[in-house]
Design goal:
about 45% strand; 28 strands; four-stranded antiparallel β-sheet; mainly beta; globular; about 375 residues
């Protein structure tokens, strides 16, 4: 594989490469590539860059079909005052422009837009940090965008202290469900409610109440993610400082299933479900350069271990349109795309690679534009066409 510095994701000497056909995964239908701006005569580039005023950490693509190339970013400043910013690519100028920016207490541990691919829900996003916050975006008549805090969700109102949230996930099947993970060993499942505001036509308020809270691990919980198994509403998995991956069913919370335990009980930091084949989940351990892929039908042993990074992995993202492709990002400045279609056979090398100008701490694969991946390093956001 050829690793090109400051080039778009490349393999075998080509400057750009598309994902290969997938005869082994008939369920993974790939949509046509995003079309270039033919009406304006603008030739689309393969990479776009945005330089923020501060170090970036959290980041997420908007899912709405009418808001292409829109992303939310979170600052990483070691102080109370932090920022959340929404940016959008102007394809005519090839530059990102800031749509809205708000203050945020402490750095956001995660940002997510509502998983609304049809534009039928309010235009909202959520952030986690000290609490879970819901933000609403609105287009003003003068063409600008407003962003305001819609609600703050706190399940510990009887205490002056909060247990910081390490992550959360927004249920794709039912966007009224959000789950959070916390350092207090718990996961909390929230139900969101949208109510019409009396006397204000077309306006609604958003609130939330706790559906359930459970002790998920023996130590801090670092991540949780809903699975689309079954109805897509009830199954989620979590990882934590005890080094285990646990799976829960909201209908039967009296027990959980441990699907993997790190042999050295090293904390597991992140997990992500395969978007197309829901039997597979990826996870990564603290200060480890390997990505572990698990098959929940065969618990206990990884079905694959991806070993090409030369420094600790910071993020992972499954392809939204393919069951056999996953992207990893690490401190070695690299974002790598892997073809895991040969599992359980050994997977030696990635098929695509990109080398950034800094340690890559975040990677997101756009669900509504699956030929684009976004990464963050230092104070830079880059979107890469794959």
């Amino acid at each position: 594989i050829l690793l090109l510095n400051r080039g778009v994701m490349s393999s075998s000497g080509a400057s750009t490469a598309a994902l290969p056909p997938q005869p082994s995964a008939p369920s993974a239908s790939q949509p046509p590539p995003t079309q270039s701006s033919g009406d304006t005569g603008v030739k689309r580039k393969e990479i776009y860059k945005y330089v923020a005023p501060w170090t970036l950490y959290s980041m997420n693509w908007s899912n709405r079909p009418d808001k292409k190339f829109r992303l939310a970013l979170g600052s990483f400043l070691e102080e109370y005052a932090n920022k959340v910013q929404v940016v959008q690519l102007d394809e005519n100028t090839s530059e990102f422009r800031s749509l809205a920016m708000v203050d945020h207490p402490y750095p956001t541990t995660k940002i997510m837009w509502i998983p609304d691919t049809k534009g039928s829900h309010p235009d909202i996003l959520a952030t986690s940090g000290d609490y879970l916050r819901i933000w609403r975006l609105s287009d003003r008549l003068d063409g600008t965008t407003s962003m305001k805090n819609e609600c703050l969700l706190n399940n510990n109102k009887n205490s002056d202290f909060c247990a910081p949230l390490t992550s959360f996930d927004w249920n794709e099947t039912d966007p009224n469900i959000i789950g959070t993970s916390s350092i207090d060993t718990t996961c909390t499942i929230w139900n969101l409610e949208t109510k019409q505001v009396v006397g204000r036509s077309g306006h609604s308020s958003i609130s939330g109440h706790v559906r359930t809270q459970l002790i998920a691990h023996d130590k801090e919980v670092y991540d949780m993610a809903f699975s689309k198994i079954g109805s897509g509403r009830d199954i989620f998995a979590s990882v934590g400082a005890d080094g285990s991956v646990r799976m829960f069913d909201l209908r039967h919370l009296e027990h959980s299933t441990i699907i993997y335990e790190d042999p050295g009980h090293v904390p597991l930091l992140r997990l992500a479900w395969n978007k197309m084949d829901h039997n597979y989940v990826g996870t990564m351990a603290l200060d480890c350069s390997d990505l572990i892929i698990l098959d929940i039908r065969v618990p206990g042993t990884p079905v694959a271990t991806l070993k090409n990074h030369r420094a600790c992995i910071n993020g992972l993202a499954w392809a939204p349109h393919s069951s056999i492709h996953i992207c990893t990002a690490a401190d070695d400045h690299q974002a790598l795309i892997w073809d895991v279609g040969q599992m359980p056979r050994n997977i030696e090398d990635p098929i695509l690679a990109y080398t950034a100008d800094g340690e890559v701490n975040q990677v997101q694969w756009a669900s509504s534009q699956p030929d684009w991946i976004a990464i963050c390093y230092n104070n830079c956001l880059e979107i890469l066409r794959v």
